[in-house]
From TrEMBL:
PANTHER family: GENERAL SECRETION PATHWAY PROTEIN G. NCBIfam families: IV_pilin_GFxxxE (TIGR02532). It comes from the Bacteria. GO terms for biological process: protein secretion by the type II secretion system. This is Type II secretion system protein GspG C-terminal domain-containing protein. It comes from Candidatus Wildermuthbacteria bacterium RIFCSPHIGHO2_02_FULL_47_17. The chain crosses the membrane at residues 13-34.
Length: 157
């Protein structure tokens, strides 16, 4: 009487390992897109929070908060640099980008118009229908997705 050997062959083990590898790579790729979409949703929520703070500021001051410093190269105001000084009552904690705390939310310079408009915007990760970069802007006129960086009230909406 001979004992039968039980177990898997090397080929069977390699096939199973390959299948597991393929499935895990598919899951990781799809989760990366979901994370990107979640960060973009957070950016949109942050923009709506900035709009609320701006509207509260407007109610007390009859103008929107005006940018006092410009970000080199873009001419835009860096939210993390200028907001805590003047708008802290309306927004105690300035939101930061969910992917990197070094990234900032911006708004187009509104000093020349005496604060009668504002445009806060963030760079999104997902391109959407844009060829290269997609921006999400929130302004006194509402929210919109843009393919070009907003620089004035006319280009913000």
């Amino acid at each position: 009487m001979t004992k039968g050997k039980r177990g898997f062959t090397l080929i069977e083990l390699l096939v199973v390992i390959a299948i597991i590898g393929i499935l895990s790579s598919i899951v990781l790729v799809s989760m990366g897109t979901a994370r990107e979409q979640a960060r973009d949703a957070r950016r949109m929520a942050d923009m709506r929070q900035i709009v609320s703070a701006q509207e509260l500021f407007y109610g007390d001051n009859n103008r929107y908060y005006m940018c006092s410093t410009a970000n080199p190269g873009t001419g835009d105001c860096a939210a993390t640099v200028t907001w805590p000084r003047s708008i802290g009552t309306y927004m105690p904690k300035v939101p930061v980008d969910p992917k990197s705390t070094n990234s900032q939310y911006y708004w187009a310079n509104n000093v020349t118009d005496n604060g009668y408009w504002f445009c806060a915007y963030a760079t999104m990760e997902g391109k959407g229908s844009c060829a290269t970069v997609r921006y999400y802007s929130s302004s006194f006129a509402g929210n919109s997705e843009l393919c070009a960086q907003p620089t004035s009230s006319a280009t913000c909406i």
